[in-house]
Design a protein that fits this description.
It is a single chain. This protein has 84 residues and is α+β, with helices and mostly antiparallel strands. Helix content is 36%, strand content 10%. It folds into two domains: 39 residues, no CATH class; 33 residues, no CATH class. It contains three helices and two strands, in the order H-H-H-E-E. Strands 1-2 form a two-stranded antiparallel ribbon.
Length: 84
């Protein structure tokens, strides 16, 4: 599904010079489909960045997330705490 969305958006004029994919692909299957899609659009992957983040930091970021359901506002107990 995600590869299909990317393929559809590659047709937009703002993607003529290239695209930046953040957090994608996440699996080998997605990477293989992305490679096929890029080849069919005469594109190539030029750079890949991998961020090595301490697992404890990742857990803290995930566990600190909060959502106020009434307003659908997102918060983080450390980085962006709610006023109340």
């Amino acid at each position: 599904m995600i590869v299909g969305l990317i393929a559809d958006n590659l047709k937009n004029p703002e993607c003529k010079r290239g695209v930046l994919l953040d957090g994608f692909p996440r699996t080998t299957g997605q990477a293989e489909k992305l490679e096929v899609m890029f080849k069919s659009n005469n594109m190539k992957i030029e750079r890949v960045l991998e961020f090595n983040v301490d697992e404890n930091v990742l857990v803290q970021r995930i566990e600190g997330r909060r959502i106020h359901l009434a307003s659908v506002s997102s918060y983080h107990i450390t980085n962006n705490p709610p006023k109340v």
